[in-house]
Input
Amino acid sequence: MKLQDGPGTICIGACREQDLVELRSLMTELGYERKERELSTTVREIRQRGGEVFVAVKEDHVIGCVCALLDLRLAAGTYGEIVSLVVTEEFRGAGVGRVLVTHAESWLGERVGKIRVRANTRRKEAHGFYRSLGYEESKSQKIFIKQVP
Output
């Protein structure tokens, strides 16, 4: 998928090994410190579980990413899930996020009938963004985490 943006073209495609350095920077912008090796393992595991990681590339630089997952729950059934959407600050507001989500929706739409997005309560701008794409707020949750040995 391609998006014309001023003098250059933005291409959307599956994450490649050479994208991991810049993917690491994007995860930092999102608030998560990840090592390249960890990201490589995570991308491989996402694919093994039926998901995909897409990147937006302009002039050989990764400027955004999104992850499309398949989530199966006993009570809720199967959903597609869009997670880890981030666009570099320089390109926010230029339509890159919208194109990444549309690409992930298209990919997931071939696999499932429902797509879910989760956004942290403090990410108010993200809430408005997803609403503008037709997503409706469904519920609020608290998430509990326990470190296991």
